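User: quick one, fold this
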Amino acid sequence: MSPRDDQSALQQRYQEERDKRIKNSAARSVQGLEGEFAGYLHDPFADTGFVRDPLHKEFDVVIVGGGIAGLLTAARLTQAGISRVCIVEKGADFGGAWYWNRYPGIACDTESYIYLPLLEETGYMPTRKYASGLEILAYCRKVARHFALYDNALLQTEFKGAQWQEDTSRWIVRTDRQDVLSARFVVLIGNKLHRPQLPAIPGIKSFKGHSFHTSRWDYNYTGGDSRGGLTGLSDKRIGIIGTGATAVQCVPHLARWAKHLYVFQRTPAPVDVRNDRETDPQWAKSLKPGWQQERMDNFTAVVSGYDVDQDLVCDGWTDLARNVKLAAVRKLRAGEVIPDPDAVVQAADDERMNRIRARIDATVRDKSTAESLKPWYRQACKRPGFHDQYLDTFNQPNVTLVDTRGKGIESITTNAVVVDGKEYAVDCLVFATGFEYNSDFTRILGADIEGRGGLSLSRKWQDGAETFHGIASTGFPNAFFIGGMQIGYSPNFTHMLDISARQIASVIAQARLRNATTVEPTQEAENEWVELIVKLSQAKEAVLRECTPGYINNEGVLDLRARKNRLYGGDTVSFLTRMDAWQKDGTFKGLRFV
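Assistant:
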Protein backbone atom coordinates (compact mmCIF):
# COMPACT_ATOMS: atom_id res chain seq x y z
CA MET A 1 0.00 0.00 0.00
CA SER A 2 1.38 3.42 -0.98
CA PRO A 3 1.76 6.30 1.51
CA ARG A 4 -1.14 8.05 -0.24
CA ASP A 5 -3.34 4.94 0.25
CA ASP A 6 -2.28 4.78 3.91
CA GLN A 7 -3.27 8.41 4.39
CA SER A 8 -6.59 7.88 2.65
CA ALA A 9 -7.37 4.89 4.88
CA LEU A 10 -6.46 6.89 7.96
CA GLN A 11 -8.74 9.77 6.94
CA GLN A 12 -11.54 7.28 6.41
CA ARG A 13 -10.99 5.95 9.94
CA TYR A 14 -11.08 9.51 11.30
CA GLN A 15 -14.36 10.14 9.50
CA GLU A 16 -15.89 6.94 10.93
CA GLU A 17 -14.95 7.96 14.47
CA ARG A 18 -16.41 11.44 13.94
CA ASP A 19 -19.64 9.96 12.60
CA LYS A 20 -20.07 7.94 15.81
CA ARG A 21 -20.30 11.15 17.80
CA ILE A 22 -22.44 12.99 15.26
CA LYS A 23 -25.01 10.16 15.33
CA ASN A 24 -25.21 10.38 19.11
CA SER A 25 -25.92 14.08 19.54
CA ALA A 26 -28.03 13.40 22.64
CA ALA A 27 -24.80 12.59 24.46
CA ARG A 28 -23.90 16.29 24.19
CA SER A 29 -26.91 17.65 26.10
CA VAL A 30 -26.20 19.29 29.44
CA GLN A 31 -27.82 18.93 32.85
CA GLY A 32 -28.70 22.26 34.45
CA LEU A 33 -27.20 22.98 37.87
CA GLU A 34 -30.46 23.80 39.59
CA GLY A 35 -32.56 22.03 42.21
CA GLU A 36 -30.81 18.91 43.50
CA PHE A 37 -27.77 19.79 41.36
CA ALA A 38 -27.27 23.27 42.82
CA GLY A 39 -24.75 21.75 45.23
CA TYR A 40 -22.34 21.28 42.33
CA LEU A 41 -21.77 25.04 42.46
CA HIS A 42 -21.07 24.95 46.20
CA ASP A 43 -17.64 26.06 47.39
CA PRO A 44 -16.19 23.20 49.47
CA PHE A 45 -13.13 25.25 50.41
CA ALA A 46 -14.88 28.29 51.91
CA ASP A 47 -15.72 29.19 55.50
CA THR A 48 -19.47 28.63 55.66
CA GLY A 49 -19.76 30.93 58.67
CA PHE A 50 -18.18 33.93 56.97
CA VAL A 51 -20.14 37.18 57.34
CA ARG A 52 -19.30 40.86 56.95
CA ASP A 53 -21.04 44.20 56.73
CA PRO A 54 -22.03 45.53 53.28
CA LEU A 55 -19.52 47.90 51.72
CA HIS A 56 -20.51 51.21 50.14
CA LYS A 57 -17.37 52.70 48.64
CA GLU A 58 -15.89 54.32 45.55
CA PHE A 59 -12.97 52.87 43.62
CA ASP A 60 -11.01 53.77 40.52
CA VAL A 61 -11.40 50.22 39.18
CA VAL A 62 -13.51 47.25 40.22
CA ILE A 63 -12.32 43.91 38.84
CA VAL A 64 -14.75 40.98 38.86
CA GLY A 65 -12.70 37.81 39.13
CA GLY A 66 -9.67 36.95 41.23
CA GLY A 67 -7.99 34.37 39.01
CA ILE A 68 -4.78 34.88 37.06
CA ALA A 69 -6.44 37.33 34.64
CA GLY A 70 -7.73 39.45 37.53
CA LEU A 71 -4.39 39.32 39.31
CA LEU A 72 -2.54 40.32 36.14
CA THR A 73 -4.89 43.23 35.48
CA ALA A 74 -4.58 44.49 39.05
CA ALA A 75 -0.79 44.13 38.91
CA ARG A 76 -0.53 46.05 35.63
CA LEU A 77 -2.83 48.75 36.98
CA THR A 78 -0.68 49.04 40.09
CA GLN A 79 2.43 49.38 37.95
CA ALA A 80 0.65 52.15 36.02
CA GLY A 81 0.09 54.05 39.26
CA ILE A 82 -3.58 53.16 39.73
CA SER A 83 -3.98 51.91 43.29
CA ARG A 84 -7.65 52.19 44.26
CA VAL A 85 -8.49 48.79 42.82
CA CYS A 86 -11.07 46.39 44.27
CA ILE A 87 -11.30 42.73 43.25
CA VAL A 88 -14.64 40.96 43.72
CA GLU A 89 -14.18 37.18 43.87
CA LYS A 90 -16.77 34.55 44.76
CA GLY A 91 -14.12 32.12 45.98
CA ALA A 92 -12.64 32.46 49.46
CA ASP A 93 -9.23 33.32 48.00
CA PHE A 94 -7.43 34.27 44.83
CA GLY A 95 -6.58 31.65 42.23
CA GLY A 96 -9.54 31.34 39.88
CA ALA A 97 -9.40 27.98 38.09
CA TRP A 98 -6.61 26.94 40.46
CA TYR A 99 -8.80 27.76 43.45
CA TRP A 100 -11.74 25.69 42.25
CA ASN A 101 -9.82 22.80 40.69
CA ARG A 102 -7.95 20.90 43.39
CA TYR A 103 -8.40 17.33 42.25
CA PRO A 104 -5.59 14.84 43.00
CA GLY A 105 -2.74 15.10 40.54
CA ILE A 106 -3.67 18.53 39.24
CA ALA A 107 -0.73 20.28 37.62
CA CYS A 108 0.04 22.72 34.85
CA ASP A 109 0.38 21.09 31.41
CA THR A 110 2.30 24.09 30.09
CA GLU A 111 5.79 24.73 31.41
CA SER A 112 5.50 26.62 34.70
CA TYR A 113 8.45 28.92 33.90
CA ILE A 114 6.31 30.55 31.22
CA TYR A 115 2.81 29.81 32.54
CA LEU A 116 3.17 31.49 35.93
CA PRO A 117 3.24 35.23 35.20
CA LEU A 118 5.27 37.92 36.96
CA LEU A 119 8.01 35.55 38.12
CA GLU A 120 10.74 38.17 37.87
CA GLU A 121 8.54 40.81 39.50
CA THR A 122 7.85 38.56 42.49
CA GLY A 123 11.27 36.91 42.61
CA TYR A 124 9.78 33.42 42.51
CA MET A 125 11.04 30.28 40.77
CA PRO A 126 8.70 27.27 40.36
CA THR A 127 9.93 24.06 41.94
CA ARG A 128 9.17 21.91 38.90
CA LYS A 129 8.90 22.18 35.13
CA TYR A 130 5.18 21.49 35.56
CA ALA A 131 4.05 23.05 38.83
CA SER A 132 1.37 21.31 40.88
CA GLY A 133 -2.00 22.91 41.45
CA LEU A 134 -1.13 23.51 45.09
CA GLU A 135 1.99 25.40 44.12
CA ILE A 136 0.14 27.49 41.55
CA LEU A 137 -2.59 28.34 44.06
CA ALA A 138 0.05 29.37 46.60
CA TYR A 139 1.76 31.47 43.94
CA CYS A 140 -1.49 33.29 43.12
CA ARG A 141 -1.70 34.23 46.80
CA LYS A 142 1.90 35.40 46.68
CA VAL A 143 1.12 37.68 43.73
CA ALA A 144 -1.87 39.11 45.61
CA ARG A 145 0.32 39.84 48.64
CA HIS A 146 3.13 41.28 46.53
CA PHE A 147 0.79 43.85 44.95
CA ALA A 148 -1.21 44.42 48.17
CA LEU A 149 -4.41 43.17 46.53
CA TYR A 150 -5.88 41.67 49.69
CA ASP A 151 -6.34 45.18 51.13
CA ASN A 152 -9.37 45.97 48.96
CA ALA A 153 -10.45 42.45 48.00
CA LEU A 154 -14.02 41.28 48.54
CA LEU A 155 -13.68 37.51 48.76
CA GLN A 156 -16.55 35.04 49.11
CA THR A 157 -18.59 37.66 47.30
CA GLU A 158 -20.62 37.07 44.14
CA PHE A 159 -21.06 39.69 41.46
CA LYS A 160 -24.75 40.42 40.87
CA GLY A 161 -24.60 43.03 38.15
CA ALA A 162 -23.47 46.53 37.20
CA GLN A 163 -25.25 49.55 35.75
CA TRP A 164 -23.74 52.54 33.96
CA GLN A 165 -24.76 55.89 35.43
CA GLU A 166 -24.75 58.45 32.65
CA ASP A 167 -25.09 61.45 34.97
CA THR A 168 -22.04 60.58 37.09
CA SER A 169 -20.08 58.56 34.49
CA ARG A 170 -19.64 55.78 37.00
CA TRP A 171 -20.46 52.09 37.18
CA ILE A 172 -22.54 50.90 40.13
CA VAL A 173 -21.51 47.35 40.99
CA ARG A 174 -23.70 45.18 43.21
CA THR A 175 -22.95 41.90 44.98
CA ASP A 176 -24.76 39.19 46.89
CA ARG A 177 -23.57 40.76 50.16
CA GLN A 178 -25.45 43.97 49.44
CA ASP A 179 -22.29 45.84 48.52
CA VAL A 180 -22.81 48.94 46.38
CA LEU A 181 -19.52 49.92 44.74
CA SER A 182 -19.07 53.02 42.62
CA ALA A 183 -16.31 52.64 40.05
CA ARG A 184 -14.93 54.80 37.30
CA PHE A 185 -13.89 51.64 35.44
CA VAL A 186 -14.91 47.97 35.62
CA VAL A 187 -13.01 44.93 34.36
CA LEU A 188 -15.06 41.75 33.96
CA ILE A 189 -13.24 38.40 33.82
CA GLY A 190 -14.96 35.48 32.09
CA ASN A 191 -13.17 32.48 33.64
CA LYS A 192 -14.25 29.51 31.53
CA LEU A 193 -12.81 26.89 33.88
CA HIS A 194 -14.89 27.31 37.01
CA ARG A 195 -18.57 26.61 36.22
CA PRO A 196 -18.87 22.80 36.09
CA GLN A 197 -20.78 21.06 33.33
CA LEU A 198 -22.78 17.88 33.85
CA PRO A 199 -24.03 15.62 31.05
CA ALA A 200 -27.80 15.14 30.91
CA ILE A 201 -27.62 11.35 31.20
CA PRO A 202 -31.00 9.64 31.59
CA GLY A 203 -31.49 8.68 35.24
CA ILE A 204 -28.76 10.97 36.55
CA LYS A 205 -31.22 12.29 39.14
CA SER A 206 -31.94 8.80 40.46
CA PHE A 207 -28.39 7.96 41.56
CA LYS A 208 -28.30 7.37 45.36
CA GLY A 209 -24.57 6.98 45.82
CA HIS A 210 -22.08 9.78 46.41
CA SER A 211 -21.09 12.08 43.54
CA PHE A 212 -19.15 15.27 42.83
CA HIS A 213 -17.49 17.19 40.01
CA THR A 214 -13.70 17.31 39.80
CA SER A 215 -13.79 21.10 40.20
CA ARG A 216 -15.45 20.64 43.60
CA TRP A 217 -13.46 17.64 44.77
CA ASP A 218 -14.86 16.13 47.97
CA TYR A 219 -11.85 15.27 50.12
CA ASN A 220 -14.16 14.67 53.08
CA TYR A 221 -15.29 11.59 51.17
CA THR A 222 -12.07 10.50 49.46
CA GLY A 223 -9.55 11.50 52.10
CA GLY A 224 -6.15 12.91 51.16
CA ASP A 225 -5.47 16.05 49.17
CA SER A 226 -4.35 17.03 45.68
CA ARG A 227 -1.07 15.17 46.25
CA GLY A 228 -2.95 11.89 46.76
CA GLY A 229 -3.54 9.72 49.80
CA LEU A 230 -7.20 8.99 49.00
CA THR A 231 -7.53 6.46 51.83
CA GLY A 232 -11.30 6.85 52.03
CA LEU A 233 -11.67 4.96 48.76
CA SER A 234 -10.09 1.68 49.82
CA ASP A 235 -13.46 -0.10 49.99
CA LYS A 236 -15.21 1.94 47.29
CA ARG A 237 -16.13 1.24 43.67
CA ILE A 238 -15.56 4.49 41.81
CA GLY A 239 -16.84 5.51 38.41
CA ILE A 240 -15.27 8.48 36.65
CA ILE A 241 -17.08 9.94 33.66
CA GLY A 242 -14.84 11.69 31.17
CA THR A 243 -11.34 11.18 29.80
CA GLY A 244 -10.18 14.71 29.05
CA ALA A 245 -7.30 16.73 30.49
CA THR A 246 -8.62 16.52 34.06
CA ALA A 247 -9.19 12.77 34.04
CA VAL A 248 -5.73 12.18 32.59
CA GLN A 249 -4.27 13.69 35.78
CA CYS A 250 -6.61 12.31 38.46
CA VAL A 251 -7.30 8.78 37.14
CA PRO A 252 -3.90 7.43 38.31
CA HIS A 253 -4.65 8.62 41.86
CA LEU A 254 -8.16 7.16 41.89
CA ALA A 255 -6.78 3.88 40.56
CA ARG A 256 -4.14 3.71 43.27
CA TRP A 257 -6.61 4.04 46.15
CA ALA A 258 -9.99 2.74 44.98
CA LYS A 259 -11.16 -0.83 45.45
CA HIS A 260 -12.16 -0.68 41.80
CA LEU A 261 -12.19 2.12 39.25
CA TYR A 262 -14.39 2.26 36.16
CA VAL A 263 -13.31 4.84 33.59
CA PHE A 264 -16.23 5.73 31.31
CA GLN A 265 -14.95 7.03 28.00
CA ARG A 266 -16.78 8.72 25.12
CA THR A 267 -13.79 9.95 23.12
CA PRO A 268 -10.19 9.01 24.03
CA ALA A 269 -7.62 11.70 24.72
CA PRO A 270 -4.30 12.05 22.85
CA VAL A 271 -1.83 11.48 25.69
CA ASP A 272 1.87 12.02 25.04
CA VAL A 273 4.94 11.99 27.28
CA ARG A 274 5.27 14.81 29.83
CA ASN A 275 8.76 14.27 31.27
CA ASP A 276 8.24 16.35 34.38
CA ARG A 277 11.29 17.15 36.51
CA GLU A 278 12.47 19.33 39.37
CA THR A 279 13.92 22.76 38.64
CA ASP A 280 17.68 22.73 38.33
CA PRO A 281 18.97 25.33 40.84
CA GLN A 282 22.12 25.97 38.79
CA TRP A 283 20.04 26.68 35.70
CA ALA A 284 17.83 29.04 37.72
CA LYS A 285 20.89 30.93 38.99
CA SER A 286 22.23 31.33 35.46
CA LEU A 287 19.17 33.23 34.18
CA LYS A 288 19.63 36.86 33.18
CA PRO A 289 17.09 39.69 33.69
CA GLY A 290 14.34 39.49 31.10
CA TRP A 291 14.62 35.72 30.87
CA GLN A 292 10.91 35.00 31.34
CA GLN A 293 9.67 37.31 28.59
CA GLU A 294 12.35 35.92 26.27
CA ARG A 295 11.26 32.38 27.09
CA MET A 296 7.56 33.22 26.59
CA ASP A 297 8.25 34.88 23.24
CA ASN A 298 10.37 31.95 22.12
CA PHE A 299 7.65 29.45 23.05
CA THR A 300 5.05 31.53 21.21
CA ALA A 301 7.19 31.67 18.07
CA VAL A 302 7.79 27.92 18.07
CA VAL A 303 4.16 26.90 18.64
CA SER A 304 3.09 29.41 15.97
CA GLY A 305 5.16 27.51 13.43
CA TYR A 306 8.13 29.88 13.14
CA ASP A 307 11.51 28.29 12.54
CA VAL A 308 13.67 29.73 15.33
CA ASP A 309 17.32 28.97 16.05
CA GLN A 310 16.66 27.49 19.47
CA ASP A 311 13.68 25.96 21.27
CA LEU A 312 14.12 27.15 24.87
CA VAL A 313 11.17 25.22 26.32
CA CYS A 314 11.47 21.84 24.55
CA ASP A 315 8.18 20.29 25.65
CA GLY A 316 5.30 18.43 24.08
CA TRP A 317 3.75 21.61 22.71
CA THR A 318 6.88 22.78 20.91
CA ASP A 319 7.62 19.24 19.73
CA LEU A 320 4.15 19.20 18.17
CA ALA A 321 4.83 22.48 16.37
CA ARG A 322 8.33 21.54 15.21
CA ASN A 323 7.25 18.20 13.79
CA VAL A 324 3.89 19.19 12.31
CA LYS A 325 3.59 22.92 11.58
CA LEU A 326 7.18 23.22 10.34
CA ALA A 327 7.11 20.09 8.18
CA ALA A 328 6.50 21.89 4.88
CA VAL A 329 8.77 24.82 5.75
CA ARG A 330 11.74 22.52 6.32
CA LYS A 331 11.18 20.65 3.08
CA LEU A 332 11.02 23.92 1.14
CA ARG A 333 14.22 25.14 2.75
CA ALA A 334 15.89 21.88 1.79
CA GLY A 335 15.12 22.65 -1.84
CA GLU A 336 12.21 20.25 -2.31
CA VAL A 337 9.35 21.16 -4.62
CA ILE A 338 6.08 20.89 -2.68
CA PRO A 339 2.92 21.18 -4.81
CA ASP A 340 0.65 20.84 -1.75
CA PRO A 341 2.15 22.11 1.55
CA ASP A 342 -1.08 21.28 3.39
CA ALA A 343 -0.67 17.63 2.44
CA VAL A 344 2.83 17.67 3.94
CA VAL A 345 1.49 19.08 7.20
CA GLN A 346 -1.31 16.50 7.17
CA ALA A 347 1.23 13.70 6.70
CA ALA A 348 3.30 15.03 9.61
CA ASP A 349 0.15 15.18 11.75
CA ASP A 350 -0.65 11.59 10.80
CA GLU A 351 2.86 10.51 11.75
CA ARG A 352 2.61 12.14 15.17
CA MET A 353 -0.80 10.65 15.91
CA ASN A 354 0.49 7.25 14.78
CA ARG A 355 3.31 7.67 17.31
CA ILE A 356 0.81 8.44 20.08
CA ARG A 357 -1.21 5.35 19.16
CA ALA A 358 1.96 3.26 19.03
CA ARG A 359 2.84 4.41 22.55
CA ILE A 360 -0.52 3.06 23.72
CA ASP A 361 0.23 -0.34 22.14
CA ALA A 362 3.65 -0.37 23.79
CA THR A 363 2.26 0.52 27.23
CA VAL A 364 -1.17 -1.06 27.68
CA ARG A 365 -0.99 -4.84 27.86
CA ASP A 366 -4.62 -5.67 27.13
CA LYS A 367 -5.04 -5.27 23.38
CA SER A 368 -8.75 -4.51 23.51
CA THR A 369 -8.20 -1.76 26.09
CA ALA A 370 -5.28 -0.38 24.10
CA GLU A 371 -7.41 -0.21 20.97
CA SER A 372 -10.16 1.66 22.83
CA LEU A 373 -7.67 4.22 24.15
CA LYS A 374 -6.44 5.18 20.70
CA PRO A 375 -7.50 8.64 19.47
CA TRP A 376 -8.62 8.59 15.86
CA TYR A 377 -8.61 12.24 14.82
CA ARG A 378 -6.20 14.99 13.89
CA GLN A 379 -4.08 16.51 16.64
CA ALA A 380 -5.80 19.90 16.31
CA CYS A 381 -9.20 18.43 17.20
CA LYS A 382 -8.52 17.98 20.91
CA ARG A 383 -6.30 19.64 23.48
CA PRO A 384 -3.21 17.41 23.73
CA GLY A 385 -2.61 15.65 27.02
CA PHE A 386 0.79 14.97 28.57
CA HIS A 387 1.22 12.44 31.35
CA ASP A 388 3.71 9.78 32.33
CA GLN A 389 1.41 7.46 34.36
CA TYR A 390 -2.07 7.66 32.78
CA LEU A 391 -1.67 4.85 30.25
CA ASP A 392 0.07 2.53 32.75
CA THR A 393 -2.97 2.85 35.01
CA PHE A 394 -4.97 0.61 32.68
CA ASN A 395 -2.62 -2.29 33.42
CA GLN A 396 -3.85 -2.40 37.02
CA PRO A 397 -6.26 -5.28 37.79
CA ASN A 398 -8.63 -2.92 39.69
CA VAL A 399 -9.13 -0.61 36.68
CA THR A 400 -11.70 -1.14 33.93
CA LEU A 401 -12.01 1.06 30.86
CA VAL A 402 -15.62 1.21 29.71
CA ASP A 403 -15.57 2.51 26.15
CA THR A 404 -18.95 3.81 25.02
CA ARG A 405 -17.68 4.03 21.42
CA GLY A 406 -18.78 7.62 21.05
CA LYS A 407 -22.33 7.01 22.27
CA GLY A 408 -21.90 8.25 25.80
CA ILE A 409 -23.46 6.57 28.82
CA GLU A 410 -26.83 4.93 28.21
CA SER A 411 -28.29 5.67 31.65
CA ILE A 412 -27.64 5.86 35.36
CA THR A 413 -29.61 3.87 37.95
CA THR A 414 -29.77 4.23 41.72
CA ASN A 415 -26.43 2.44 42.09
CA ALA A 416 -24.93 1.84 38.67
CA VAL A 417 -23.87 3.21 35.31
CA VAL A 418 -25.35 1.50 32.25
CA VAL A 419 -23.45 1.13 28.98
CA ASP A 420 -24.77 -1.06 26.16
CA GLY A 421 -27.25 -2.66 28.54
CA LYS A 422 -24.59 -3.67 31.07
CA GLU A 423 -24.67 -2.28 34.60
CA TYR A 424 -21.51 -1.22 36.39
CA ALA A 425 -22.28 -0.89 40.10
CA VAL A 426 -20.51 2.03 41.78
CA ASP A 427 -20.50 3.67 45.20
CA CYS A 428 -19.38 7.05 43.92
CA LEU A 429 -19.50 8.93 40.63
CA VAL A 430 -16.83 11.48 39.78
CA PHE A 431 -17.75 13.82 36.93
CA ALA A 432 -14.66 14.86 34.96
CA THR A 433 -16.96 16.39 32.38
CA GLY A 434 -15.43 19.82 31.96
CA PHE A 435 -16.94 23.26 32.10
CA GLU A 436 -19.43 25.48 30.32
CA TYR A 437 -16.64 26.57 28.02
CA ASN A 438 -18.86 27.83 25.21
CA SER A 439 -21.58 29.41 27.35
CA ASP A 440 -22.42 33.10 27.04
CA PHE A 441 -20.01 35.50 28.70
CA THR A 442 -22.65 36.83 31.13
CA ARG A 443 -23.61 33.29 32.20
CA ILE A 444 -19.98 32.51 32.98
CA LEU A 445 -19.70 35.87 34.71
CA GLY A 446 -22.77 35.08 36.80
CA ALA A 447 -24.71 38.28 36.05
CA ASP A 448 -25.43 40.83 33.34
CA ILE A 449 -24.41 44.47 33.02
CA GLU A 450 -26.30 47.46 31.61
CA GLY A 451 -24.51 50.09 29.54
CA ARG A 452 -25.73 53.24 27.82
CA GLY A 453 -29.51 53.53 27.61
CA GLY A 454 -29.99 50.37 29.65
CA LEU A 455 -28.53 48.15 26.90
CA SER A 456 -27.57 44.79 28.44
CA LEU A 457 -24.39 43.02 27.42
CA SER A 458 -26.29 39.76 26.92
CA ARG A 459 -28.60 41.50 24.45
CA LYS A 460 -25.80 43.15 22.49
CA TRP A 461 -23.86 39.88 22.34
CA GLN A 462 -26.85 37.60 21.75
CA ASP A 463 -25.58 36.80 18.24
CA GLY A 464 -21.95 36.57 19.33
CA ALA A 465 -19.36 38.79 21.01
CA GLU A 466 -18.77 42.26 19.57
CA THR A 467 -15.54 43.79 20.83
CA PHE A 468 -12.48 45.77 19.99
CA HIS A 469 -9.36 43.63 20.58
CA GLY A 470 -11.50 41.39 22.80
CA ILE A 471 -11.36 43.93 25.65
CA ALA A 472 -13.99 46.63 25.06
CA SER A 473 -17.43 47.01 23.47
CA THR A 474 -19.26 50.03 22.09
CA GLY A 475 -22.12 51.13 24.32
CA PHE A 476 -20.29 50.10 27.48
CA PRO A 477 -18.01 53.03 28.34
CA ASN A 478 -15.20 52.46 30.83
CA ALA A 479 -15.94 48.72 30.83
CA PHE A 480 -13.36 46.11 29.87
CA PHE A 481 -13.55 42.38 29.35
CA ILE A 482 -11.13 39.48 29.53
CA GLY A 483 -12.42 36.13 28.37
CA GLY A 484 -11.78 33.39 25.87
CA MET A 485 -13.09 35.33 22.89
CA GLN A 486 -11.53 37.52 20.21
CA ILE A 487 -8.01 37.54 21.72
CA GLY A 488 -4.97 35.50 20.76
CA TYR A 489 -4.62 31.77 21.36
CA SER A 490 -1.63 30.04 22.89
CA PRO A 491 -1.19 26.87 24.92
CA ASN A 492 0.44 29.33 27.32
CA PHE A 493 -2.81 31.24 27.70
CA THR A 494 -1.63 33.38 30.60
CA HIS A 495 0.61 35.15 28.07
CA MET A 496 -2.52 36.17 26.13
CA LEU A 497 -4.26 37.24 29.34
CA ASP A 498 -1.31 39.47 30.13
CA ILE A 499 -1.56 41.14 26.73
CA SER A 500 -5.19 42.06 27.53
CA ALA A 501 -4.25 43.16 31.05
CA ARG A 502 -1.48 45.42 29.74
CA GLN A 503 -3.79 46.96 27.15
CA ILE A 504 -6.51 47.64 29.70
CA ALA A 505 -4.05 49.21 32.13
CA SER A 506 -2.57 51.41 29.40
CA VAL A 507 -6.02 52.57 28.23
CA ILE A 508 -7.12 53.45 31.77
CA ALA A 509 -3.83 55.26 32.42
CA GLN A 510 -4.28 57.16 29.14
CA ALA A 511 -7.82 58.18 30.10
CA ARG A 512 -6.48 59.60 33.34
CA LEU A 513 -3.65 61.37 31.52
CA ARG A 514 -6.12 62.99 29.11
CA ASN A 515 -8.56 63.80 31.93
CA ALA A 516 -11.15 61.95 29.86
CA THR A 517 -14.45 61.10 31.50
CA THR A 518 -15.14 58.07 29.30
CA VAL A 519 -13.43 55.78 26.84
CA GLU A 520 -14.98 53.22 24.51
CA PRO A 521 -14.39 51.83 21.01
CA THR A 522 -15.69 53.53 17.92
CA GLN A 523 -18.32 51.51 16.08
CA GLU A 524 -16.09 51.38 13.00
CA ALA A 525 -13.13 49.94 14.94
CA GLU A 526 -15.33 47.37 16.64
CA ASN A 527 -16.89 46.28 13.35
CA GLU A 528 -13.47 45.90 11.73
CA TRP A 529 -12.20 43.73 14.58
CA VAL A 530 -15.27 41.48 14.59
CA GLU A 531 -15.05 41.08 10.80
CA LEU A 532 -11.41 40.03 11.14
CA ILE A 533 -12.25 37.49 13.86
CA VAL A 534 -15.02 35.98 11.71
CA LYS A 535 -12.82 35.86 8.61
CA LEU A 536 -9.96 34.14 10.43
CA SER A 537 -12.37 31.73 12.10
CA GLN A 538 -13.88 30.68 8.77
CA ALA A 539 -10.41 29.91 7.45
CA LYS A 540 -10.02 27.17 10.08
CA GLU A 541 -13.41 25.57 9.68
CA ALA A 542 -12.40 22.99 7.09
CA VAL A 543 -10.28 21.24 9.73
CA LEU A 544 -12.77 21.80 12.55
CA ARG A 545 -15.62 20.26 10.57
CA GLU A 546 -13.64 17.03 10.27
CA CYS A 547 -13.16 16.82 14.04
CA THR A 548 -15.24 14.85 16.49
CA PRO A 549 -17.55 17.24 18.41
CA GLY A 550 -15.96 18.94 21.40
CA TYR A 551 -15.44 22.31 23.00
CA ILE A 552 -12.74 23.26 20.47
CA ASN A 553 -15.22 23.16 17.56
CA ASN A 554 -18.24 24.21 19.64
CA GLU A 555 -19.59 20.64 19.59
CA GLY A 556 -19.62 20.79 15.80
CA VAL A 557 -21.83 23.91 15.58
CA LEU A 558 -19.89 26.35 13.38
CA ASP A 559 -22.24 29.26 12.76
CA LEU A 560 -21.74 33.05 12.79
CA ARG A 561 -22.32 33.22 16.54
CA ALA A 562 -19.63 30.60 17.17
CA ARG A 563 -17.24 32.41 14.83
CA LYS A 564 -17.67 35.67 16.72
CA ASN A 565 -17.02 33.93 20.04
CA ARG A 566 -13.80 32.28 18.90
CA LEU A 567 -10.27 33.34 19.63
CA TYR A 568 -8.17 35.20 17.05
CA GLY A 569 -7.69 32.62 14.30
CA GLY A 570 -4.33 33.75 12.94
CA ASP A 571 -1.07 32.52 14.43
CA THR A 572 -0.19 33.90 17.84
CA VAL A 573 2.84 35.85 16.66
CA SER A 574 0.69 37.79 14.18
CA PHE A 575 -1.74 38.65 17.00
CA LEU A 576 1.09 39.84 19.25
CA THR A 577 2.56 41.86 16.38
CA ARG A 578 -0.78 43.59 15.85
CA MET A 579 -1.17 44.36 19.55
CA ASP A 580 2.42 45.56 19.89
CA ALA A 581 2.11 47.87 16.88
CA TRP A 582 -1.15 49.30 18.24
CA GLN A 583 0.43 49.90 21.63
CA LYS A 584 3.59 51.51 20.23
CA ASP A 585 1.62 53.76 17.91
CA GLY A 586 0.52 55.66 21.01
CA THR A 587 -2.61 57.17 19.47
CA PHE A 588 -4.94 54.46 20.84
CA LYS A 589 -6.53 54.18 17.41
CA GLY A 590 -10.06 52.81 17.52
CA LEU A 591 -10.89 54.23 20.95
CA ARG A 592 -12.82 57.42 21.65
CA PHE A 593 -11.81 59.44 24.72
CA VAL A 594 -14.32 62.07 25.85
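User: anything notable?
Assistant: The mean pLDDT is 92.
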